[in-house]
Fold this sequence. Notes:
alpha/beta; Rossmann fold; 47% helix; 12 strands; disordered N terminus
Amino acid sequence: MNMRGFLRPGIRIKRWLFIGFVGMLLLGTGFSGIFTRLGLGVDKGGTAALLIILGILAEYTAIRGFLGSGAAQKRTKGLGTGRTEGSRRIIHKRILMRGPRVVAIGGGTGLSVLLRGLKNYTSNITAVVTVADDGGGSGVLRTDLGMLPPGDIRNCILALADTEPVMEQLLQYRFKKGQLAGQSFGNLLIAAMNGISRNFEEAVKKISQVLAVTGQVLPLTLEDIILYAQLKNGTVVRGESNIPVKAQEHNSPIDRVFTKPESPKPLPEILEAIENADAIVLGPGSLYTSVIPNLLAEGMVDCLYRARAPKIYVCNIMTQPGETDGYSAGDHIRALEEHAGRKLLDMVVVNSGSIDRELLERYEMDGSRPVDVDGERIRSGIKVISQDLVSRQGEFLRHDSMKLGRLITKLTPGRGPGLLEYYYHIIDMTQKNRS
Length: 435
């Protein structure tokens, strides 16, 4: 390409490349002290420091200009909308690949809510999902086919998947009539994949590949475990779905939960992910039936304890009837660490946002109330992070996925969401300029 062609107006990338080159030259000159060797007295006059500062400013200008030009907006007639959108997706994915390595542990709706927001800030996600579910469609497939329950796995895969809305609706569709009434299509798809795979783990990985999942979703164990609960009055309840029901019938709170077989073996990939994590998140989700069962696997607590990453517990917004009646945030932590057998957590995330009065009254009619933070009952050494994280979704209260995902990455040492937020800012500005 000749100089005239290079200087021809285009999508304004070449000028940013040139500025970036100048910035690198300034930085290199400043750091090498070449002026000193030439007898120009760089070090004495502070010129090297000035060059370094100018170089950093030039690099910043070049990166900002590049993201705001051909990669984020269309200027030439030859570039179509699809090309521009493709450029954005490439840049976005590259930034996500630099995000923190987060291990999210739990099950149920809570874990999928966290994952749905977290994937916007990092692609290095490992979701560890409990496999103690024995109710609903998952329970039917578990009994009929002898497979592990797919329900929570399905929700987490969909939360991390890059799917069209129609595809998500299809996978979440529940049959309303016939022998399949109450069963979801997504569960049946996982069951079919399990039938042509060596084991449940391989089936989950294949489904994840098909749906272009961000990160990985892993079942806690491949063993067929059954969750039990011992109530305060001594009654032993068998089955995850029966625990809150029986606790209410006996009007007796849960004392502890355990599994049979005891200490099931977790997947090796889970322990490896925990060891290499930048942040480890437990919850949100049902305390005794979604979060704590993951701690009962062999070696899980020891692995978590040894991990250098901060252990963050995301406390539920509301108490759960038959499971955490009257529990404060401190009570949640106490129950979790009693089952762990040691002090485990570094931080607890609690909601400080207000709840719509009408919806709050509806929850209270069912015996559910906002979780009291009660800082005095939270042991010293645990940092309390209080933010407005509540979101109304129809007739239900949930954590705000995006706010929670951003907060978790922000709490990760040295791996915050700054670059991604700058990228989102560029995209927003580009869209405003177009309109």
